Amino acid sequence: MNTDSPAPAVYIQLKNRVTVPKGKGVLLRDVAYLITEPHWREPLYSLLVLQPQEGDGNLILIDLLTVIPRIQEVYPDAEIQPIGEGRTIVQIEGPATSAKPSIALFVLVWLLLFFGSALTIMNFHADVSMLEVQIRIVEMLTGRRDEHPYLFQIAYSLGIGFGMVIFFNHLFKKKWNEEPTPLEVEMFLYQKNIDQYVINEEYRKMKRRSDEAPGSREGGA
């Protein structure tokens, strides 16, 4: 490092969630975006922020209180300007397996979802007396009562399927527009809630370790 060069101004933004292979150290480039002078960027990106241990589990919380001291060890006078959220979740990923997906398991899950959805719709229709409603609608339209309005029921069933395709904005791999589907929104909210839970749990563990440290007990005595 050239000590004659002025200390850099470092703008740092931590990523929300990243995945790191098991056994690999977590570098600054893995968890953060940096804006600084070009000749400072690569040395900063190569900083080792954390070396995961076996007891750390597969989810690790890294915040600015971990990152800033590592930068200051190399550039003590660096002007660090954080941007956005001050923490990131690191998921430790094991080696990828080459096992092929089970066709039998896929068919089983598909059948469970298909018949489960069908039973749900039929039970709902039974609860609201949908058959009687359809008979009454056909009677109002045609002027005669038909106890088995199959034509209306077929059109109604096709309409349910078409409406589901429009509602979920998805047919196999085809999307009608760039708007997120309701399922994608729910998955996003679910993942966000999981991340918030992990953050709270990691901070709780950090506080407990801090309270159990010998220095903390001596300071509180």
From TrEMBL:
* Entry's transmembrane regions: 103-124, 150-172
Residues annotated as domain Stage V sporulation protein AA: 9-93
Q: Which UniProt keywords apply?
A: Membrane, Transmembrane, Transmembrane helix
The protein in question is named Stage V sporulation protein AA
